[in-house]
């Protein structure tokens, strides 16, 4: 009886000590292993294909430790990876040994479709081997790790550059999360541009139906402003007309079947009209800036100090890199691989008519998610 209780206690302790993470978090660990085993990653083009002509050699990988004060650094040296805590070497690992675990980790990740946190044997083995006590260090910005690269032009080490990691192994992640800061307000006018005296009966939650019903009934919906002053100021740093460009895209999404960003741009700003070149470029730049660190509810100074690059984990296990030298491809990749979504109508107060000082308004929310 005592032995059974002891075995049960040990099992419970083992389960409690098992590291768990969602697919995105395990993908970050996989990316660390991939960069160490391969010495870096190839650039990606706008279609997520490997650009064999550009390889970004990684000299160092830096993580914040669990406490936040400690820096964990990984540095390849011939066939060995040296691991440092701040400036003190704490371990070294043979690359070949890490490679074997990396292959197992990809196999287990590819076979797992769970949305919640789960454990992976190969993941736990890699964490132990690389002296990592957490899969993902807590961070207030968008970066997942810092890299020191060999600069392609100067052939000198770069400063530490923050990179964000996106994975195609799990469910598509968001590029822009819904919040009250991403609400846009529009005024509703009648067909003559006057304040309406009556409205058709709208639905409680179906925002698209409400917008379509108003437009088909002859009402005009005109953009007023982005609700968040902080977000508005951030957008103005990119371009003073950007709010209007996004508001037009947003209204089009809620009044049409299209949801892909590429389709919405083509509908509202067709490339055949040369007058649209600035609007198209600024929308692309906006997506890039959002991916590289700007937050809707945080004041931004126009300088991207948080992130300088983007790492993409593909379904086949390849890891590709978007960086300064292929920024144009990065922008087009974002356009080609994102869509707009409708978040909770009640949580964000969107899709219903609001009266204020005798005038009528409706709010729409900007949420952007990756396609895959």
Number of strands: 16
Elements, N to C (H/E): HHEEEEEHHEEEEHEHHHHEEHEHEEE
Count of separate DSSP helical elements: 11
Bulk shape: elongated
- The average pLDDT value, as a whole number, equals 89
Distance between the termini: 52 Å
The rounded Rg comes to: 24 Å
Contiguous low-pLDDT stretches (5 residues minimum) are 5-16
What is the domain total for the residues?
A: 2
Task: Specify the structural class.
Answer: alpha+beta
Helix content: 25-40%
The description of the largest β-sheet is:
6 strands, mixed, barrel
The percent range for strand residues is 25-35%
Strand order of the largest sheet: 1-2-6-7-11-12
Features:
372 residues; alpha+beta; 2 domains; four-stranded antiparallel β-sheet; 11 helices; 16 strands; 25% strand; elongated
